[in-house]
Write a structure and sequence with these properties.
This protein has 266 residues and is mainly alpha-helical. It is rod-shaped.
C-alpha cells in the first residue's frame, strides 16, 4: 500500500451528506409551519363562526332583561289616564225610567204640559203618566222637597211649595209694566167670573169705560177674544187665557173661589 495516499478527511466525507440533511430539516420546518398555519386558520374560522352566535345570545339576553315597548312606564301611564267611562258604560249606571224622564221634562219646561203631550214625548200611555206623577209627588213629600208636580191650566208643571212664597217673593222682582192696577184687577175679575162677556156688560158692572184696560190685559196675555155675541152688532166676547190660569195657579176656571165666599174689601 502506498503510504502517501491521502486518508479521506472526515469533514470531506461528510460534506456530500450535509445538503440533504439541511433540505430534510427545512422540509420538516416548512411542514410544521404549514400545519401551524392551518391550525391558526381553523381557530380563526371557529372564532368567526362563534362570534355571531355570541352576539345573538347577548342580544336575546338583553331583550329579555328589558321590558317590552308596550310595558314601558310612559306608555302604561297614558293607557291608565284614559277614563273608564270613555271606553265603556259602567254596569251600575241605571237606564232612564218613565218616571225619571217625566221628571226631567217637567223640570226643564217653563209652561204646563198636557197629559197627552207628555205621553207622546215619553212614548207611553196617559195612565202611566198619571201614575208616574203620583209616585213622584209621593217621593217628593217623603223626602221633604220644596216642590211638587201640580195640574195647572190643563197640564202638569213643577211648582214650589206655598210655604216658600215669602222667600220667593223677595227673590222675584216684578217689572212695573207687569203689575196690575186696581182697575185692571177689577176688570179681569169680572171677565174671569162672567166669561164670555162683552165690553158693554163689563162697563155696566164697573160703571166706567174699560176699553183701554181690556187692551192692556190683552197685551199682557191675560185676556183674549173668545168669539162674537149673537146679538145686534155682534160685539166681541172676552175671556181669560191659559196664561191667566198659570199666573194665578189654577187648573181651570172652576177652581176660582166662589163669589159668595169672597169677603168684601175692608
Amino acid at each position: 500500500m502506498d503510504d502517501n495516499r491521502e486518508m479521506p478527511n472526515e469533514e470531506n466525507r461528510a460534506t456530500p451528506d450535509r445538503p440533504s440533511m439541511i433540505e430534510e430539516k427545512t422540509g420538516i420546518a416548512e411542514e410544521e409551519a404549514a400545519q401551524a398555519y392551518d391550525k391558526e386558520q381553523e381557530a380563526a374560522s371557529e372564532m368567526n363562526e362563534a362570534a355571531p352566535k355570541a352576539v345573538d345570545a347577548a342580544e336575546s339576553q338583553g331583550s329579555e332583561s328589558q321590558p317590552a315597548e308596550a310595558e314601558q312606564p310612559g306608555e302604561a301611564s297614558e293607557i291608565v289616564a284614559v277614563p273608564a267611562s270613555d271606553v265603556q258604560t259602567s254596569d251600575s249606571e241605571q237606564s232612564p225610567t218613565v218616571e225619571s224622564v217625566i221628571e226631567a221634562i217637567l223640570f226643564a219646561t217653563d209652561e204646563p204640559l198636557p197629559e197627552s203631550k207628555l205621553a207622546g214625548i215619553v212614548e207611553t200611555t196617559g195612565k202611566q203618566v198619571r201614575e208616574s206623577v203620583e209616585n213622584l209627588n209621593a217621593r217628593y213629600e217623603a223626602n221633604g222637597n220644596a216642590f211638587r208636580i201640580e195640574q195647572i191650566a190643563g197640564g202638569y208643571q213643577m211648582l214650589t211649595q206655598p210655604m216658600y212664597n215669602p222667600w220667593l217673593t223677595k227673590m222675584v222682582r216684578v217689572r212695573s209694566d207687569n203689575k196690575l192696577s186696581p182697575a185692571a184687577m177689577e176688570t179681569l175679575a169680572i171677565i174671569a167670573y162672567k166669561q164670555p162677556i162683552i165690553r158693554a156688560d163689563i162697563e155696566a158692572i164697573r160703571g166706567v169705560a174699560v176699553g183701554e184696560v181690556i187692551r192692556s190685559l190683552m197685551y199682557k196675555g191675560l185676556v183674549k177674544i173668545a168669539g162674537r155675541a149673537e146679538i145686534l152688532g155682534r160685539p166681541m166676547l172676552y175671556g181669560t187665557t191659559k196664561k191667566f190660569l198659570e199666573v194665578f195657579g189654577l187648573n181651570s176656571i172652576k177652581d176660582l173661589p166662589k163669589a159668595e165666599d169672597l169677603k168684601n174689601p175692608g
